[in-house]
Amino acid sequence: MIGEWLDIGPVGQISPGNARTLPVVGGEEIAVFHTLDNQFYALVNKCPHKQGPLSQGIVHGSVVTCPLHSWNISLKTGEAQGEDKGCVPTIPLKVDAGRIYLLREAVIRRSAA
Ligand code: FES
């Protein structure tokens, strides 16, 4: 269905191992990650510990290490790994013909909340 997915631009805008942030009007900023093995993930840009900016963390495998206190957060589930407990919402994402799409409903729902 048209309109289900929000086109946020070409995959080339994020180099492997990096992230970019996407402001959401009236909602929480989203971080979009490109892993070294060429996967893309989107999470709310707030560490479940003390809201550190995950987009500035270090990406390894499908995990990002928070820049503030080094919690490891799964990019797939948003959950803290190891002994740490907490979870950050993930945003469904797909790549199609070289462009990144986020599930519109997930982005809109966040901004309505
Ligand atoms: S805020 Fe992320 S580890 Fe503390």
From TrEMBL:
InterPro entries: Rieske-like_NirD, Rieske_2Fe-2S, Rieske_2Fe-2S_sf
Segments forming a coiled coil: none
Any Pfam family matching the protein: Rieske
Domain of life: Bacteria
Domain called Rieske: residue spans: 6-102
Alphabetized Gene3D superfamilies for the sequence: Rieske [2Fe-2S] iron-sulphur domain
Keywords recorded for this protein, A-Z: 2Fe-2S, Iron, Iron-sulfur, Metal-binding, Nitrate assimilation, Oxidoreductase
Name of the protein: Nitrite reductase small subunit NirD
Originating species: Novosphingobium aquae
